[in-house]
Design a protein that fits this description.
With about 55 residues, the protein is an all-alpha fold. It is built from one helix and no strands. The relative contact order is 0.07.
């Protein structure tokens, strides 16, 4: 049987783990979106240049 203090500590610990996982997940998604937008803008620039040449 856990004491209330230990139980609270355990709960806080679990919450901290969840928060860090969530932050890591968000970071991954942001990085993905950033690289995607970078690729898309590069592609658009290429397309525009190609259309100018035609």
């Amino acid at each position: 049987m856990y004491s209330k203090e230990k139980l609270l500590h355990k709960r806080v610990n679990i919450n901290n783990q969840l928060a860090s996982h969530f932050l890591y997940f968000n970071l991954m998604i942001l990085t993905l979106l950033y690289s995607l937008s970078f690729a898309i803008t590069a592609d658009l620039k290429e397309t525009i240049e190609f259309c100018k040449l035609k």
